[in-house]
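Entry 14: structure prediction run for Translation initiation factor IF-2. Input pasted below.
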Amino acid sequence: MLIAELEDLRADPNQPASGVVIEAEMDKTKGPMATVLVQSGTLKLGDTVVAGNTWGRVKAMFNDVGKRIKKAEPSTPVALLGMESVPQVGDKIIAVATEKQARDMVNENSQSTRKTNAVSLTNVYDQVSQGNIKELNIILKTDVQGSLEPIKDSLEKLSTDKIKININRSGAGNVTESDVMLAMASGGLIIGFSTGIETNAQRLADAEDIDIRHYDIIYKLIEDVDKALQGLLEPTIKEVIDGRAEVRAVFESTKKLSIAGCMVLEGKLVKNSQVRLLRGGEVIVDAPSNSLRRFKEDVKEVVAGYECGVGLKDFNEFQKSDILEFYHKEKSR
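Run finished. Output tokens:
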């Protein structure tokens, strides 16, 4: 109460409760337990609350001498049970009206945390300098098994007293969805040497903001990681897939140009975007789109689930089942 009095806090006890987590632990018998300082409103038994990336319904509350209580008013520290998992010390806690609202808030908080904490070669120096990370977790994929050890050894030698390089997984082959999921779980990034990436893996990496770097020269790979740890690496340009479509039919226009009749499979197709045409997994052409139509009308974009006609600059060799990837480039984080 002394702190509240000194700061002249006049919290309204009638509004929904909010406060901050000051202690948190996993009790062996009671489960997740959080000690909260109520800053405004009144926290009551049965309230649904959100704290950072977790939520729960208050099942029990205890005051500073361990006595069960039914409500906690402003400036009151209280230990509570009922959280789904252990929150972080410093998390803001707030009472909400419904479980759905709680779940939605946790989902937003979780996505925001992943974006904020996502590690890339571009921001790793800042993350280390700010004390956010002490280890750089890397998933390493190469074209052949023989390339793994020299790259792995060289990367691990870059460890310093401020940051340790961990190769969480290494193997030969394309970057897979499993690799991306491991990077998400470990807060790491992925490095590929002379290898590709599966479609589902790229989609997940884009959604979760996972940094995937591709190299064809070992020296350049090691140099970039070394520069990144010193804060000297310049931002790179990366591709972002906007949408994919499958060619279902091929038509000849009045100007003797081929138009691909397509079904948009995912994302959206944007007129004048760069387009990569894949056939049997191989890139046949990479060219800008110069025509995008719905029926006979020119349109700016077409979203998933709709049919459209696509034309590419200086290309007329469409075939059924070709895949068109519409993409743009942007600076990496």
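Notes: The CA atoms of residues 279 and 322 lie 5 Å apart. Will compare against the previous run tomorrow.
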